[in-house]
Amino acid sequence: MASAESLLRAFEKDGIETSLKASGEEVTQADRGLERHISGLLREHAPGLPLLGEETTRDGSVPETGWILDPIDGTMNFARGAPYYAIALGLVDAGRPVLGVVSAPRLQLRIAADVDACPAAEPPATRARSLSRAIVGVSGTGSRRLPAETELVTRLQTGAYRVRMHGSMCLDVVGVAMGWLDACVCVRPKPWDVAAGLAIARSRGYAALSADGGDFTWSSPVLVVAHPELAAELLHFAWTVLSAAYRPREL
Questions:
Q1: Which of 117, 147, 171 is the last residue of a domain?
Q2: φ/ψ of residue 17, rounded to 5
């Protein structure tokens, strides 16, 4: 991770140019350069494991066992000099995130977790257990958002204690694990956005729920991460607003 952080600083020093992907999301030369660099390291040190990366190796399917990489989660923040972006690398086994490594250099944060190393972890007892007392992160409501996604943010402004929009799904999920946030809602999450953070949050005992109320799966159009009691309440709140909007052609 140290070499990737050094490369990221070099891209920042040289200036950042952005372009738009077909999805309407921004991408920079740093996103693509970092993915090539990290994927090369993984091929060298863990040969044989497939990689699903956002920029250069994406084929749309999560490997049964393999790596999932977002070279820069929060590209818009990175391109504008805001500190809320991160390199996010997750390892999945049986399709489930089991290891997560996240580096947010401008926040001086580097965190890693192995789910199997702490199977009985419990979230802190002092965390908010009700939505009315919770600080909630919301992400994924940017490019080509649906009216229901805007409505969700509006309703959370009164339903939650506070709402935060950092512009990085990875850091929202990690924020729950570290205590910056009580909960987060990720709308239309992609595997590379959340794989690393999910491993970290689950290693600390937090629930990660799909739209159907079960453990999060890659096909779900929404992800809620929080203490188990709060997660159930927040999911019900969010899905009440979003469910009618998510027809297959819009996912």
A1: 117
A2: -110, 140
Residue 67 has pLDDT above 70, yes or no: yes
Do residues 74 and 168 make contact, with C-beta atoms less than 8 angstroms apart?
yes
Residues 142 and 64 in one domain: no
Co-location of 242 and 192 in the same domain: yes
User: Token pair of 228, please?
Assistant: 């188990």
Q: Give first-to-last CA distance, the chain, whole Å.
A: 32
In whole angstroms, what is the distance from residue 220 CA to residue 205 CA? 21
Domain end: 117, 147, 162, which one? 117
Confidence band, pLDDT 50/70/90 cuts, at residue 117: confident
What is d(CA 136, CA 153) in angstroms, rounded to the nearest whole number?
10
Q: Global pTM?
A: 0.92
26's enclosing H/E stretch is strand 26-28
Burial readout 219-250 (b: 16 or more C-beta within 10 A, e: otherwise): ebbbbbbbbeebbebbbebbbebbeebbeeee
Expressed as residue numbers, the domain containing 11 is: 2-117
> Do 225 and 238 form a contact (C-beta atoms < 8 A)?
no
The CA-atom distances, in angstroms, between 39 and each of 31, 54, 57, 139 are 12, 11, 9, 26
The residue behind tokens 């512009």 is 167
Tens of pLDDT, residues 175-200? 999 999 999 999 999 999 999 999 99
Question: Rounded CA gap, 62 and 94, in Å?
Answer: 10
pLDDT at residue 244 is higher than 80: yes
Mean pLDDT lowest among 19-23, 45-49, 180-184: 19-23
- Which residues, in sequence order, are CB contacts of 185 under 8 Å at separation 6+? 136, 137, 138, 139, 152, 156, 222, 223, 224, 234, 238
